[in-house]
Amino acid sequence: MTDTPKTGWFKRLSAGLARSSQQMTETVVSTFVKEPLDEAALERLEEHLLESDLGPAATGRIVERFRALRFGKTSDAREVKEALADAVAAELLPRQASFDPLGSGIKPFVVLFVGVNGSGKTTTLGKIASDLTARGAKVMVVAADTFRAAAREQLKVWAERAGADFESRRDGADPAGLAFDAFTRARAENFDVVLIDTAGRLQNKSALMDELLKIVRVLKKIDPEAPHETLLVLDATVGRNALAQEQIFGRTAYVSGLVMTKLDGTARGGVLVPVAQASDAPIKLIGVGEGVEDLQPFDARAFARSLVGLED
Ligand SMILES: Nc1nc2c(ncn2[C@@H]2O[C@H](COP(=O)(O)OP(=O)(O)OP(=O)(O)O)[C@@H](O)[C@H]2O)c(=O)[nH]1
Fold it and tell me: Annotated binding residue at 199?
């Protein structure tokens, strides 16, 4: 069979979620294939869903859906998986949105990346830069984490690989000043997209938030609508700590979309559900590996099906 782009994409998603889907299949699905759906089984379902980090609210609703379904003694694995996928998709569909900097009509379209160090911000920005330049866009990458030379270097490598312009300053320069100058040049030189990486040191939370807000303020001096997107990058492997990070950034940084990275590195990919539901911002992208193609648009239905181990 030829590998269409669609199936290739779904295969990557499924491979990335393999650890989570294995956990789901081993616990939840096997419970119902072996025995009828009685109260004891529903209790075990609740336990397993909580262990998969789906969170109490979504878990409660999913258990109720299963109670209403009344599987007979002979329900097979496929039937259980389909029902579970539908239940998880129903939780996530209202929390899905697309990231489309080239389709907005805004030029240059400014994207701010926020999140703690190590969450995958730089990698995500680099993957997006590669995708946009491959589609013919003129892209500028801005390293507004001016304190860490290593962070700048890493970003520079991504920018060069993508064929994007790169803007940075010496150690300790004002990140807001850099963002202002970069945006000004991007306007003058007709760039399509400006991608701004920011610092993520949470040790000094209020200074970090002040720095982010200052960047937002100066961008608005040039264009009151900027930044046109603020993506909060969260690492799925930190589990429910991602919820705390969402609260810290979500409250102050005007986040407009979430990116959940490293879903391939955890068996508890279900954590995406409570994070999506706690946030005012929808999930726009997910990372299921280190390759450029492993950053994918978030598709709630496909995610739910992969999470429970369905193959299409
Ligand atoms: N397996 C896997 N690794 C990822 C994914 N996204 C990012 N990474 C890796 O996670 C590590 C941290 O990513 P960075 O992009 O450096 O994180 P950052 O938030 O920019 O952190 P600093 O550079 O410390 O500010 C890198 O080794 C990435 O290759 C993903 O979806 N899956």
Answer: yes
Phi, psi of 86 (to 5 degrees): -60, -40
Pairing of strands 283-287, 193-197: unpaired
- Count each helix (H run) and each strand (E run) in the chain, helices first: 13, 8
Q: Which CATH architecture has domain 5-95?
A: Up-down Bundle (1.20)
CATH architecture designation of domain 109-299:
3-Layer(aba) Sandwich (3.40)
> What atom of ligand 1 comes closest to residue 150's alpha carbon?
23
Which atom of ligand 1 is nearest the CA belonging to 287? 31
Residues with CB under 6 A from ligand 1: 115, 117-123, 151, 154, 200, 261-262, 264-265, 287-290, 294
- Report pLDDT digits (tens) over 247-285: 888 877 789 999 999 999 998 899 999 999 999 999 999
Any known ligand binding at 116?
yes
List the residue whose alpha carbon is closest to atom 29 of ligand 1. 290
Query: Residue 197: is it exposed, middle or buried by C-beta count within 10 angstroms (0-12/13-18/19+)?
Result: buried
Q: How far is the CA of 261 from the centre of ligand 1 (A)?
A: 8
Ligand 1 atom index nearest CA of 265? 1
Lookup: tokens for 59: 């878990």
Instruction: List the beta bridge partners of residue 114.
Output: 232
Q: Which residue has the tokens 């294939």?
A: 33
> How many other CB atoms are found less than 10 A from the CB of residue 41?
16
ipTM reported for the complex, 2 dp: 0.91
Give 138's strand partners: none
The pTM (predicted TM-score) of the whole model is: 0.92
CATH 1.20.120.140 residue ranges in the chain?
A: 5-95
For 110-123, how does the pLDDT look when each residue is reduced to its tens digit (9 = 90+)? 999 999 989 999 99
The answer to whether 138 is a known ligand-binding residue is no
Annotated binding-site residue? 210: no
Answer for the pair 126, 162: CB distance below 8 angstroms, yes or no.
yes
Atom of ligand 1 nearest to the CA of 118: 21
